[in-house]
């Protein structure tokens, strides 16, 4: 029960975070600079999560994952197909991981 | 006769393009657009279920992190912290730091919600996660009008939600059969890489992504959710000044 109560509290506050700016900015017009800033949050957030995902790994797995992400990024520049990007990245990772084992 | 034919044609066209049919078409389009991302994110959902299965936490609570938080990173952190007996303050603060970037996402999507009905403005933020924001903020989806965009959002969000809950449940079931060496959790950042590439078509996106990626290197020094939040803010600030420096 304790765990569930804590979880629900965190969930309600998380919804509050998600909803806060939507409700605060409703009906308000932002300056071009603020609009650019908030629009920039999407690529910035995605890049941060991608790079940050490497921090949880170390040793020989880290460079394998880094190279896989770079290969996937290159593929992504030439195609809109998500599965192709994921496939290229995973194939790269498995090939490199097999080499270092 | 010709006038009657015109009336029948108009009536037929109206029926064929009635609001319920358009809504369904838009929802299906949303489901189709997010489907590749769902496939890439399923391994992450399964890994959350596997983590919950290995944790002292009750399986039902572990699964409940899905509908309650609906955010992979904070779900993993919550399961680990609750399983280790961390205090309520520690758990809640950790979740808030990890999810703080959603406030900025909310600001980014606020203009798209401006002309939407109240019930949708209340519901849509619940689904605000990286794959959704990347999918629905695509300019191509906004060209069809507010109603189409709304049902497209709901189609994408509900597809992701159902798949996510199912993946977590599957992870709870398969548990230790999943070998971490398979690296299946890499699929999620690879999906996000595909989405990020679409945002690099203009200078503002490139600057924001570059600044965000650079700031995210902080995660190697201070590995907590604060690095992602800080990087998101840094990238946003950089994007704000792009046009100014271009003059």
Overview of the molecule:
Chain A is built from four helices and no strands. Chain A has 101 residues and is mainly alpha-helical. The longest helix of chain A is centred in the N-terminal third of the chain and has 23 residues, at 2-24. Chain A is flat. The N and C termini of chain A lie far apart (44 Å). Chain B is mainly alpha-helical. Chain B has helices at 2-16, 19-54, 59-69, 72-83, 88-99, 101-113, 118-123, 130-136, 139-142, 146-174, 187-198, 203-216, 226-240, 242-246. The longest helix of chain B has 36 residues, at 19-54. The radius of gyration of chain B is 21 Å and the shape is globular. The model of chain B is unreliable at 7-16 (pLDDT under 50). At the A-B interface, helix 1, helix 2, helix 3 and helix 4 of A face helix 2, helix 3, helix 4, helix 5 and helix 6 of B.
Radius of gyration of chain B, in Å, reads: 21 Å
| Rg over C-alpha atoms of chain A, rounded to the nearest angstrom | 20 Å
| Cα end-to-end separation of chain B | 63 Å
Q: Give a count of the beta strands of chain B, DSSP E runs of length 2 or more.
A: 0
Order of helices and strands of chain A: HHHH
Helical residue percent of chain A? over 70%
